[in-house]
Structure formats: C-alpha cells, structure tokens
Amino acid sequence: MQFPFTLKKEADFDVVGFGTNAVDFLIQVPHYPEFNSKVELTDYHQAAGGEIATAMVGLQRLGLRTSYVGRFGNDNAGEIGLSSLRKEGVDLTYAETIDGAQTQIAFIVIDERSGERTVIWKRDAKLHYGETDVPLDAVKSTKVLHFTPHDARACLRLAEAARANGTIISIDIDNIFDDVEQLLGSVDIIIASADFPAKLFGAVDRRAALLELQRRYGAGIVGLTLGEAGSLLLCGDKFIETPGFDVPGGCRDTTGAGDSFRVGLIYGLIQGETVEEGARMANAVAALKCRAVGARTALPNKEELNSLLRKL
C-alpha cells in the first residue's frame, strides 16, 4: 500500500531534523557486568551519535538532502559533533553552539556476545529549546520534519510551522516527556520503541497498542521497532509485520539501530516506495548499521542497501 501522505514536489531539503546529538563513549565488554563486580573491557571508542544527528547522517549517505537543527556545547565534544555532520554534508545553518554548555554525552556498554548495549546518558539543561527560541524558518522548505520529543513545546511550534508549509512530520519516541501526548497529536508518523506503549498505556499487546496510538493521535502511520525480530507498522486498517535482516558478518553493536530504522522508512517515503517496501528498507538499514561499533560507523550507502535488499 502507498504511504498516506502527499509530499512536496519541490523543497530545499528532503528532511530537516530537530533534536538530539551526542558524543558516545562505546565500551565493549566480554559480558555485561553483574552489580558490584569488575570486568576488563575489550576495547573502547569515541564517536558522534544522538538520535536525530545520526538519522540525518544516514539519510545523507543514501543521497538525500538534510539539515540539522540542534545545539552543541562549546567544548571538545561539540567540535566532534559539528565536524562529523559537516563532513557528511549535512546542512548546519540552524545548528548552534551554546557558551558554557556541555554537549550531550553517552556511555554505552556493549556486550560482545550479542552486540546488545546499555546506554547511560546526560543532556545539559543549557541545550534546551524553549517554544519561543526554536528557529521556525528552518522548516520553510522541507518535505519531512523528523524530531525527538526532548523539547516538546519547541517541537510543537516547529510542527505547526512545518504543517503550514505542507511538510510531513515524523517522531522518534521511546520515553515519556512533558507535553508528549499533545505532541503526538501533531505528527503524521509515530515510530516508537517496543516498550514505549507500556509506558504510555500500561501493559497491552503490540497490535492493540498500535490501534490505540492510531485512535488517540490520528497519525497516518504508527509503528514499533522490535530489534532483531523486525518491525510492526499500522497504516489505515492494515498491519504490516516485517522480519529483521541478518546482520552481514554478525551483530557487533545495536547502538543507533532504531535511529537507522527511521532512516530507512523515511528514505522509502521520499523515494515513493510502498509502506511494505519502506519497512523492508528500514529493517535493512538497521541491520547494516549493526555491522560495526558506533551509531553511524556502518550506516550504508545506496549500493550497500540495495545489495542487501536484493538478497531477499
């Protein structure tokens, strides 16, 4: 079935992203440590990450035109984050450096046996956007706006401006934030982590959770990422269950896999694919990302994505 949206035919950008960036400290261990124990790490890496910054890099590698709206501290981590986006060709017209702020960081412990990770993160309050200081001009000419809900009131303002310009709005959500329910009512695509519905509604099965998300907020597509099992989407009255892809060479790190899923789905939307094929693309991008340690290290280009899609 087709995506239930009409994209702008002409725009300066395919996707504008608003939300999180980070610098990740990735620590590989032979097994996840028990409480009050010690374990020798196998290796460690420092790399740029963050949900939205990572998504913009992923879309840029697939050949789309992206712009990132977000704040960095005036520290070494901020320089790492900005230079990583600049190197990938992401537009930074509306990126800001905040004096006296620390760039968001995350310490990520990766279990080598499976590639599964645990994230410990911190975001400086100085990076917060209020509803009056979000740059509305950033969404004047884009086909899709993609954001996280960390600054929900600012997201609402940006969503209003985007919708007035005929822009499709997508949210990446895995937790409850202030004003999040109002924000969910302003978006077209809700892609959540598998555990998010339980945080919002209490214990419900997945299909019932998607039906409730659709009923409450009216998004054209609602969906859950399910890790190696793939994904479950609801579009109209049709559930689309898509299996995950095996990671070529084996899974080394799941950091950023959910961000990468959103990359593939938005890419499918922009390319005019069906929802079913968009879901396949999303799972394929997520699998390819897991080939290497780091949220962005192994994000694929078009040739790599198409090669994996052809195998099934």
Describe this entry's structure for a reader.
The protein is 31% helix and 25% strand. The chain has 312 residues and is α/β, with parallel strands linked by helices. The radius of gyration is 18 Å and the shape is globular. The model has no long low-confidence stretch (mean pLDDT 96).
Give a concise summary.
This protein is of the alpha/beta class and 312 residues long.
Q: Could you tell me the mean pLDDT? A: 96
Regions with little confidence, pLDDT below 50 for 5+ residues:
none
Strand order of the largest sheet: 5-4-1-8-9-10-11-12-13
Class by helix and strand content? alpha/beta
Characterize the quaternary organization of these chains: single chain
- How many helices does DSSP assign? 9
> Which homologous superfamily in CATH is the superfamily?
Ribokinase
CATH topology-level fold name: UDP-N-acetylmuramoyl-L-alanine:D-glutamate ligase
**CATH architectural arrangement:** 3-Layer(aba) Sandwich
Radius of gyration: 18 Å
- DSSP strand count: 13
Distance between the termini: 19 Å
The tally of structural domains comes to 1
Largest sheet: 9 strands, mixed
